[in-house]
C-alpha cells in the first residue's frame, strides 16, 4: 500500500479515511479560538483527519486553521479528511443540504470529506440547537431517518461531501438504512462512543460484516463535560491494567487506549487542546500491543457509557436501549 494510505482505511465508497483523527469538540466555557489553535498544532504534528460538527459551533475557527495550513504549504486540501455532522434540528429532508451548505460557508471550503448524521434523535427545526418547551424539556421532531439519509445521498451526488455516514446508531437503526428500498449508498461509517470500558465488540462485529467502519469517540473518556457526563464517572486513564500495560511499553495509558482501537480495526479520534498531549496522541504507530495486552484490555469492558443522552430517553429513536 502506498505511504499516503498506509495509515488509512478504505471506505465502502472507495475513499480513504485516516485511522487516527483529531477531535475538536470543547465544552462551552472553552474559547472557540482554542479549537483553531489546536487544529493547527494537530496538522503540524501529523494529524490529517479532523473531526468536527455544526453543533460544536467552532467551524469558522477550524476551517480557518485548515486554510492557513494549506496556504503555508504544510498540507494540500486533499491531504485533509474533514468530517462534519448534520445536527438533529435539520433532519427534515429539505433542511439537510442547506445545513451542509451552512457548514461549508463557515469553513470556507468547497466540500467536506464526510458528512454524518450526528445522532438519530430528530429535534424541532429552527435556530436553537437544543429547542426546549416551557418546562425545559427538549422538543422532539418526527422524521423518518430513511428520508434524512436520502437527502444525505443527494449531498454526496452534488459533490458537497465525498462520503456519508452516521453516528450514535445502534445495529437496528443501521439496518433500517441498509434495508431501505432504493438505497444508493451505504453508510461509510458509524461513529460511536468506544473505549475499554465500552468496547462495542458486538456493534464492531456487525459493522465489519456490513463493510461499515466503526469510528471511536470518547476513546480516552477524558473531556468530562458535566453537561453530558456524570462527574462521578470512573477515570479511564487511571485504570491500573492500562497503566501497567503502558509502563511495560514505556507509553502513556492514553496511547495504549488509542493503540488498542487501531489494532481492532477501529478508526479512533483523539481530542486534546494541549500541545504536549496532541503530540503524544499521535505517537501510536511505532509500537504494538501483544495478544495478551489486547485480551487484558478486552477484559475491562463493562458496557459503561459516559455519554448517555439521557434527555432523549423517551425519543422513539433513542439508540442506547438496544444492547448494541
TrEMBL record:
Q: Where is this site: Lowers pKa of active site Tyr?
A: 85
Ordered alphabetically, the record's keywords are: NADP, Oxidoreductase
Its GO biological process terms? alcohol metabolic process; hormone metabolic process; monocarboxylic acid metabolic process; steroid metabolic process
A GO molecular function assigned to this protein is: oxidoreductase activity
Q: Where does substrate bind?
A: 118
What family does this belong to? Belongs to the aldo/keto reductase family.
* Protein's name in the database: NADP-dependent oxidoreductase domain-containing protein
What organism, scientifically named, is this protein from? Answer: Callithrix jacchus (White-tufted-ear marmoset)
